[in-house]
């Protein structure tokens, strides 16, 4: 894989770190570009108190000089402001102070118990800190770099929320970019801000009941050329890579590409995208039911991915659990949490799609510096047009 990245850090640790390898040299990049993406992730009605504490900003530690990439690994840090309140309870060295009370009441739906068993941790904070969706801030930073790379080739990525809980207003027939732009002005990232009041009422009701909510969001990429991915092996299929990337986001329990499950309920003539050709466009499709992929390969149509997010596991009226220190029945532990995080998750989905597509494009083209990659892209697009 041309693109490789790692994230590190705990939710209440000193910082989140990420290392990104594979971005060619000479890509223009700034911290402000990444900070805008980080800020988008923090927005959304129904977010918890943590978002009032943090104001995520990235600091480059390597791989950049005078706002241009060097071709070497890019490392970034996002410092946690809340660390000052947790430095004794999350200290990296020394003995645990007496004030530290082990987290022993696992929350149903979280990694608490399964992770505790796997890593033999009796204080489940050692699991929940890393399993927390706070980690996605680092992914958004990585995804922002990949977005910036893809922009150089005319590829744009966006997202919007389709539903929260059982509330699913009808979405107007706008193009994908227009939906994204409208969602940017919505408190819940729905592509029609006039529905915000209905959504916020539902979220407020859930909060009063001590509940949380999930939902569905859609991520898209336009300008993606045909020919990314491959049919030749299972692990090279672009739709498989996209699905894995989306499923890796905390709380995501379902992924569809194009019509997804709806395609199983239709006749073939109602699903497959008929092919046309014109002097101006070259090959094109009359529809995009398959969401931009065929046979594990991009076909030149927009990539459209839909993700289902389950409700957040932390409830202010906790579910039944067992205290692992006594094995007695108790109510699950509580942590500071959101009521709903679907709008934020859509921004994380954009980041993951950007990472997958940047990797696929570099796998297709190769190249160590931007001028080289752009020249190869130009030649490839001439081949696509002439085919």
**Unreliable stretches:** none
Gyration radius over CA: 22 Å
Listing every helix as H and every strand as E from the N terminus to the C terminus, the arrangement reads EEHHEEEEHHHHEHHEHEEEEEEEEHH
Number of helices: 11
User: How many DSSP E strands?
Assistant: 16
Mean pLDDT: 95
The largest beta-sheet arranges its strands as 1-2-6-3
Kindly describe this structure.
The chain is α+β, with helices and mostly antiparallel strands and 387 residues long. Helices cover 32% and strands 19% of the residues. The protein has eleven helices and 16 strands. It has a four-stranded antiparallel beta sheet with strand order 1-2-6-3, covered by helices on one side. It has a four-stranded antiparallel beta sheet with strand order 7-8-14-9. Strand 10 and strand 11 form a beta hairpin. Helix 6 crosses helix 10 and helix 9 packs antiparallel against helix 10. It is globular.
Protein traits:
alpha+beta, 387 residues, 19% strand
Write the layout of secondary structure elements.
Elements: E1 4-8, E2 15-21, H1 31-42, H2 50-53, E3 58-62, E4 64-65, E5 68-69, E6 74-79, H3 83-86, H4 112-119, H5 125-131, H6 136-151, E7 156-164, H7 176-183, H8 196-208, E8 215-222, H9 238-247, E9 252-257, E10 275-278, E11 282-285, E12 293-294, E13 297-298, E14 303-309, E15 320-322, E16 329-331, H10 342-365, H11 370-386
Antiparallel strand pairs: 1-2, 2-6, 3-6, 4-5, 7-8, 8-14, 9-14, 10-11, 12-13, 15-16
Helix pairs in contact: 1-6, 1-10, 4-5, 6-10, 9-10
């Amino acid at each position: 894989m041309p693109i490789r990245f790692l994230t590190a850090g705990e939710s209440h640790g000193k910082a989140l770190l990420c290392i990104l390898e594979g971005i060619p040299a000479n890509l223009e990049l700034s911290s402000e570009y990444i900070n805008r993406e980080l800020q988008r992730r923090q927005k959304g009605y129904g977010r918890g108190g943590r978002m009032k504490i943090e104001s995520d900003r990235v600091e480059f530690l390597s791989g950049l000089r005078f706002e241009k990439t060097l071709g070497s690994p890019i490392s970034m840090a996002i410092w946690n402001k809340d660390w000052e309140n947790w430095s004794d309870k999350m200290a990296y060295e020394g003995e645990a102070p007496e004030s530290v009370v082990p987290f022993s009441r696992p929350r149903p739906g979280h990694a608490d118990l399964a992770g505790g068993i796997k890593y033999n941790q009796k204080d489940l904070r050692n699991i929940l800190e890393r399993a927390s969706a706070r980690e996605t801030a680092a992914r958004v930073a990585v995804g922002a770099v990949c977005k910036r790379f893809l922009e150089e080739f005319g590829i744009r990525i966006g997202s919007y929320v389709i539903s929260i809980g059982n509330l699913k207003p009808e979405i107007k027939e706008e193009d994908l970019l227009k939906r994204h732009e409208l969602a940017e002005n919505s408190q819940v990232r729905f592509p029609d801000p006039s529905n915000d009041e209905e959504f916020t009422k539902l979220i407020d009701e859930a909060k009063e009941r001590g509940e949380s909510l999930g939902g569905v969001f859609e991520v898209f990429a336009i300008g993606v050329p045909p020919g990314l991915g491959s049919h030749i092996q299972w692990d090279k299929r672009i739709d498989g890579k996209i699905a894995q990337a989306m499923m890796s986001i905390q709380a995501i329990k379902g992924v569809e590409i194009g019509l997804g499950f709806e395609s199983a309920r239709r006749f073939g003539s109602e699903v497959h995208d008929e092919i046309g050709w014109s002097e101006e466009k070259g090959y094109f499709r009359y529809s995009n039911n398959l969401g931009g992929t065929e046979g594990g390969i991009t076909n030149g149509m927009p990539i459209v991915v839909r993700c289902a997010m389950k409700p957040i596991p932390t409830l202010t009226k906790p579910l039944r659990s067992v205290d692992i220190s006594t094995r007695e029945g108790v109510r699950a532990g509580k942590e500071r949490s959101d009521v709903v995080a679907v709008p934020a998750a859509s921004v994380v989905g954009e980041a993951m799609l950007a990472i997958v597509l940047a990797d696929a494009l570099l796998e297709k083209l190769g190249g160590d510096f931007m001028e080289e990659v752009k020249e190869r892209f130009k030649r490839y697009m001439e081949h696509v047009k002439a085919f």
